[in-house]
Amino acid sequence: MTTLVLGGTGFIGKRAVPRLVQRGEKVVVMDINPGAADFSEFGDQVEVMRGDIMQFQDVVTAIMHAKPDRIMNLAYLLGSGDDTPHFTMKLNILGMDNCFEAARISGVNRVTYASSIAVSGQQSNFGDRVINEDDPMHGTSQYAMHKRFNEFQAQQFNQVYGMSITGIRPANVTGPDKVRGSTDHVQCLTLPASGQPVSFPKAGLMRLPVHVDDVA
Question: Which domain holds residue 147?
Fold first, then answer.
């Protein structure tokens, strides 16, 4: 089995790729930063190519080259992107659409992608009870709204074209090497461990850290 991982040299991707290899799969990685992770230890089981998910032809080319059985899309902007709304929209919304549409026209029906717990919004919307995937989505940040729209995109492709596109909603993905995006839940662990003080700029928000290795 061959899996094409879009954004495969990133924070989650560089952990997911070895897991796929351990399962005996051939992995092709497409990323705009192909040198950000080293998969040389896996020999010809992992192939890395440069490509921009915002460019439809790049995604089609990667699929035609890899001939994958399934696609995993992890290409996304880490962080809110509030200061670059146009670029963020292209990467998060157009990029996801490029993934789904390129998969469709290439005959790859199985796609997985990363959504986020951010779609749910704050716990205060639900009281003290546990929430699940069937609950209404209340997330209002740009990041949350993009993830919400990604889920709508996936639903449309599934309903209209009979595809099998599945999103997962990780919580606050953390790990010692996370340096971009939301890092406050990382620093509250790493800074005290190194004897440094830590501040909580978002002290009023609830956090639900999950280690990146567990997500992968």
Answer: 2-170
